[in-house]
Structures
1.
Amino acid sequence: MPELPEVETVRAGLAPAITNANITKVEVLEPRSLRRHPGTVANFVAELEGKRVLGCVRRGKFLWLPLGNPEPTGLALVGHLGMSGQILLRTPIFEPDKLTRVIIHFESAGVAYEFRFVDQRIFGGLAIDHLSATEDGRSAGFCPEIAEDGWINSIPQSVAHIARDPLDANFDRTAVIRKLRTKNTGIKRALLDQGIVSGIGNIYADESLWRSKLYYDRPCSEISVAKLNELFEHVYEILVAAVKQGGTSFDEQYKNVNGESGYFSQTLNAYGQTGLPCARCGKLIRREAWANRGSHFCPKCQRR
DNA sequence: ATGGACACCTGTGGGC
DNA sequence: TGCCCACAGGTGTCCA
């Protein structure tokens, strides 16, 4: 479900409450949500209880909370929301949320809160992972609240293969475009490849391609550098606009940490618009089955 | 290198 | 009302 704008909305909501908070208790209601945790459930709980949260960092669709004891331990709580994950920040008296899988109780400035990891499909999950220095020694991800220092330049091992995203201060658009020019694969497949550029999923790929008038299966190598620059300009603008609107919600699946929906769905021009007229030319938007999912595009504006 | 199939899951909505 | 099918914002792995 969530792509970069939705995950960033969660990160931005979480950061002020959880930075410098102390974890008091952890409840694992659904062990499958720890599928990617290398240890046992008991070990997961033990690694968290009594620790301090140093910050909240995001790269692409991955989030992590570096941990302290209280000094940095070199470990982080890594989270991915999968297709249906949510992180809700509640006070303990707030009614239970359906499909809650893990609850992390913490105390921040003397007030008790719960970090509730809610996930319908259990494709998302939490894990404790080791941090290691980034290759270039620069900030590992997006965390504007924190100035450069030791742990911000470290990345969880399980996230190291994820490329920087377009909102990352160290994102190198020129290098990404150079790489794309060497690929014969279709442009949408490349946009969704988190090892090339991260954060883009099915919604924002379709939206960016629509705005750039590119057919999704067009081979990367035959798109000009100028056109790819235009595409990445649109990717950036769309991601920024979506973050500003709190992400895209069209059902109960995406919520911010307060349980509220984002409203970027009102701005969509391609994704989920099957059968509706293209906002540019009036031709009906089409959906094609593609890679076990759907691709939405205007057959007139986005020619093969 | 590339792409397809599939595994991991639950829930919802449409058609009959 | 029930049943079956299609479909859903992702990632990782295996195999031709």
2.
Amino acid sequence: MTSVAVTKDEISKEENMITIKDVARLADVSISTVSRVINDSKPVSPEVRRKVLKVIEETGYKPNDVARSLVTRRSYLIGVIVNNLAQSYVADIVRGIEEIGKMYGYDILLCSSYSSKETQEKYLQLLDRKQAEGLFLVGNKFDEKIIEQATELNKPCVYFTRDVHENMNHISIDCNSAIYEMTKYLIQEGHKEIIYVSDFENRSTVEDEKISGYLKAIEDNELEFSKIYVVGGNKHNKAYELGETLIKNKGEFTAVVCSSDEIAIGIMDSFIDNGVKVPEEVSIAGFGNIREGKFVRPELTTIGEPYYDVGAVGMRMLIKMIKGDKTQQGLMELPFTLEKRKSVKTLV
Amino acid sequence: MTSVAVTKDEISKEENMITIKDVARLADVSISTVSRVINDSKPVSPEVRRKVLKVIEETGYKPNDVARSLVTRRSYLIGVIVNNLAQSYVADIVRGIEEIGKMYGYDILLCSSYSSKETQEKYLQLLDRKQAEGLFLVGNKFDEKIIEQATELNKPCVYFTRDVHENMNHISIDCNSAIYEMTKYLIQEGHKEIIYVSDFENRSTVEDEKISGYLKAIEDNELEFSKIYVVGGNKHNKAYELGETLIKNKGEFTAVVCSSDEIAIGIMDSFIDNGVKVPEEVSIAGFGNIREGKFVRPELTTIGEPYYDVGAVGMRMLIKMIKGDKTQQGLMELPFTLEKRKSVKTLV
DNA sequence: CTGAAAGCGCTTACAG
DNA sequence: CTGAAAGCGCTTACAG
């Protein structure tokens, strides 16, 4: 038999984990006292405090949040269910959520569902078991059942979505006004024949608002022409196809307002590939200010939503709700921006 | 005094939380038995199981993972510290991590540090206190101190970075070969004067490998010309500026290989804005296959790294390490792809 | 200011 | 197959 020298250090690597008990023993005080100095929850005499702090320092003791969580019934965990993390706006919202959360000691449990209802259900259960204190749902649209299940969790819940339901805490911009302003802007630039391209696949409450914003701008400015096209299905591809259809009616309009940047870029690509000059022949405007809009040539004129702020405001709202403030619930609208870039031509 | 009717339902909304104890009482068994049926950990007679399941069903009981965590010493939480969630490759890696993690019951604690060392330190502490079982660090570069602190946590740890240290578990592609292949490809397309643009700001071990890959390709193909430029600082801006410098030496080269897509796009924009035609006059190649590369015109030829797979493989490795498999540690290289698009012109 | 004790909601030997 | 008991690492009345 060979005997192997085992150093203290090696042992500690295996199953170290020093606890509050160890600290108490080493500092020759009760665990209550240790707890008090860690949390600064009750007065402790200076000498005792120093003694305890010294032991903590020496041992490198770190409180176990799981144990603390169990007794305080506070997890400081916030669930964030996103449909697609790869969308740039999602990352921005998450950043807002995270930064404000960090200020208040909350952490993010990230759950990407890729729009799968089953995955969302599983995550909802999981967040419940993990004692998440609140949750965010971010994505264009969520199934009724999911919204129902999220509500049944009886946890504070905030949505970032394009399909707004009743009793839903929701933060966004005023999409109706946004499209109204965009259409008005095009009119001011001298456009008289403006079409709107709607997103059929994701037909939602917000899409209805956008359409009515478009129509109202047309009406308020006494334009004679208005026309709504609908793209059906997977955005970029379908928008590209629709673009080819639009080319056939090229003389009909001088500008197109799109329900989303994805659609706008799809149409623009289709125009360019087919020799229709943007913005010389046709102006195009999008909605959402996705990152790609700045890389596309010409750069896309669009509506900007302050996603970071949207996330930050959402987190503030959620925290208030966690604290029991019922008044915070409801809708909330943040100011949007009109990003004037190169895809729109001035006609006057 | 007014008395308000309070229904059972309302009460349960306040401070419900039914526990294993309640289930045991209602099913008239011990909590051990309830635990056994929940976890399927030991045989339970069919009738008893049915009885317990029925109560669980009726009460909607959900086990408290925090309590379970405390006793099992398993949190099933994996910390992911990212520098910038908004970068598309990060989202892809996280997706890989998450999907494999989900298969094994692990959840992601997301920590965005925006390259702040202080934030990273705080998150490291936090992940420790939350009993995270392992962690990922994803970002171009991490400070020595951070790497040290991460190591001291004594938790399985995997990096996705461009600055590889010794004893670091790391997953990526073979960047040396990648640049070698890209340069070779340009040579095969007839280019004889090829420059390389290096990333000075993020000078890292991987950058050194890239440079030597470039030089080796030049040498292996017996080209007489080679030249390395360096961009200093914030990528897109600085690359744009460097582009203007390059234009002065336009006749010197026919192709430029860049250390990253960001640099390539910056230079390309600069060329285009200054009337230098890409790829007619100069061909450009990037590295990384960021989403923007497909939106830029001409579309950018680049090296693709399978980020999703990189994340997935990383998670697999981490899980093995959590299970105590020491052999899994070290470097791991996945195959890259050469994305041939429009920014490179064939000269032969 | 300090400590002993109870308890948070679970799991898991141990004994039967 | 089942239950009583101990214990995971903490916090927090309670008593002094």
